[in-house]
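Narrative of activities, Objective 1.

The group set out to show that a structural description can be obtained from nothing but a protein's sequence at a throughput compatible with the screening campaign. Below is one input-output pair from the validation batch, recorded exactly as produced.
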Amino acid sequence: MSILMSMTMTNPIKKWAGGLFFLAGILALPLSAEAQLRVEISGAGSSQIPVAVASFVDEGISTQQISSIIKDDLTRSGYFKVIETTGPLSETSPINFSDWKSHGAEALLAGSVQRLTDGRFDVRYKLYDTVKANTLSALAMSGTPQYTRLTAHKIADDVYQKLTGIRGIFATRIAYITKSGSNYQLEVADADGDGVHVAFRSKEPIISPAWSPDGTRVAYVSFEQKKPVVYVQNLVSGARTLVANYKGNNSAPAWSPDGSKLALALSRDGLTQVYVVNAAGGGLQRLTNTSGIDTEPQFSADGQSIYFTSDRSGGPQVYRMNAAGGEASRVTFSGNYNISPRISPDGQTLAYISRREGKFQLYAMDLGSNQELRLSDTVKDESPSFAPNSKYIMYATEINRRGVLAVVSVDGRSKQRLTTQAGDVREPTWGPFMK
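Output recorded for this entry:
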């Protein structure tokens, strides 16, 4: 996390740290270890598709009720209105389409669960269009009991894609930072906040996690050497690679789309500037050389450009340059304080934090029209991260003096919050689609 602030500390929740700028809130409040995230829906899309999700036949043999997980996923998306049903319905049951249509359902899910002799569960489902009286999709998946939630998320993803034409993100993962006493944790969870596990613990602060494009690694900044140093953590093996430990501050890692490089903000030569380094370390290359502070680099979706924050115009603004360096052009002009650029995977939208009238709020800009939209109604927002389908943005904010995560659709209509039962949660990064 890297935020431009004046030496006068005009905002009390932020501080200057020798060219590395980070929110003090992550260092302050206690957290319960491995606390489950709780989802609160505070908004929904205006044009919702009414979908009936019947209970799956024999789903009670599973430790997780698959139909309930699917309902929760579809409801959280903001795109669907879930129609209540009575009784289970198998994918082989005869369907009275006119009856379901009369109950207001334009689509219907039905399915079943069976335990196989090897202990795995076989899950089958069908999605029906009740208006056209036909089958839209049919899936059969089997897996061990611990993957029941993943199976349900994949079914919800299939429903989302078949009914909206957009790839679903329910089976993706998120990572974020928590703190419990004197212990800092990098935690990984399902996109709905379930299935939390700790990827890395430290007695010193951890900041700026960034998920690799293949979903197997997370880069982050650790203070365990009493200064900010960049590591890459393998989530499969647990192995760590020290990527950047140069003189001064090493901060704000961001992956290239092919996963071969990391863009960084380093103060090794004085003021913080933008560099790139190989993902395994080495091959350092400086990209900016200005008399100001250049930080928070982010590769564009096609890897051809890098967006970053710079105060070269007097106040922090978002700029864009070629991925090999060179002349930079200013991107943000509304307001005198715009930071933390993030580019949507489809390359169409820029998300950033803007300070206006003393409020730090999430904005999105259509890069084709340069039209911007304020997406949040909170006032201490930070760390935006796009969902891999480009339709949602997760960010950290503060509610009632507690750090929470929030998710908003890029049109601002669907909103939700993810909180822990006690304490703070910060710095989200949304993982990629898994193969």
